[in-house]
Amino acid sequence: MPDQHPYVPVPEECRQALAGRLTYLTESVLSELRATELSYRDGTIPPVEPPMWISRSVGAALDAMSLESAEEITGTLAVARTTGARRARQGVPITALTRAYHVGGRLINSTVAQWAAEQGLAAEQSAAFVDTVLRVAEQHSLAAINAHQELRRSSPTVSAAGTLLHALLNGETSAVVASELGRELALPESGRYAVIALRPGLPGGPTLPLAELPTWISGLRAVWQSHHDVTFGVVVLKDAAPGVLDDGLSAAGVRVGISAAVFGLTELGRARRQAELAERTLGRGTGVALFEERLTQAMLAMAPDVALQMQSQVLAPVLELDEATRDVLLETLRAWRTAEGSMAEAAKALYCHRNTILYRLRKLERLTRRSLSSPHDMIEIVLAAEAFELAHGVGSVRRGTGA
After folding, report:
1. Dihedrals φ, ψ of 232, to 5°?
2. Global pTM?
3. Roughly what angle, to the nearest 10 degrees, separates helices 375-392 and 354-368?
4. For the residues of 52-119, what is the DSSP string, one character each?
């Protein structure tokens, strides 16, 4: 099919105008990518790298737009090819790479259209420039994607398996990638899986060597991969529940989060996020946390600003008390919650009289101006207490320590 518009180079004045907005374009692309792509905010790509590479890519596109013929665009693809190969080595999903070029092309396109409008150009001439931008964006994007795919295909088997696993853990949902990983590691493509996130108990502490991690946990096969200070395990659950992994992971001095069960290798990215959220609910403590058992804390961990506002708004009078009194009240509330509202059971757990539990809870109600007999008020108090425990590393955690 012939092109709708003949190739028309973008005027030098336009290219210079866009070059003057290079910093804005770079920051806009990066902001959108960090909001939508996990690889751009979780350390898969070193944080110092994207601004430089996005700037280079946008600059190469601007140079290509002012060339005299469409055939010359092929001579401007070096940056795109290098970027694609680099992202493949880092385990960045091809979907994230594609989005990066899509976002960049869209922003350049809208900026060119804006420039044309400012110059009062006719619609036909403006459309011709936009068509040139689309051609350049398409060729640069394809060059990057092809380089990404070529490097992944040419990698040695072990390296390729690691790259595929890394991509899936980082949100890749391609059935092709899942199928390739299944063949490489003999994993069922559509089986049930859980992901484990394992960190050292102390910040900055040494990660466990992969060779020391179990390849079988409670009779279930596990595949491990390190990523900075966290190690991820992918477990083939078969018919088991994620909770069976608890006993096999309760080593001292480590923090472990376990996802809910997911179906298929294409869901590993979602399971990874759940495992990391579960691990974050441990606060400052160590132990094992199951995502399915800590949904409330996981929601708070996802929105730390909301959690902070919740605890300060609801518990402000409590938090102003001396530390010992504050802790006694919150510990009593925690025991009462654990006892499912039974005063007698809470008293037994805290080795005190039932009336003592009642007195402390009434004091908590007076200070917060909320009633534990009101479902709405109780939810607010409990969420605020959970937020405080999450921030300060206190409270009971499954097979964990509180401090």
Report:
1. -105, 135
2. 0.53
3. 90
4. HHHHHHHHHHHHHHT-SSGGGGGGG-HHHHHHHHHHHHTT--HHHHHHHHHHHHHHHHHHHHHHHHHT
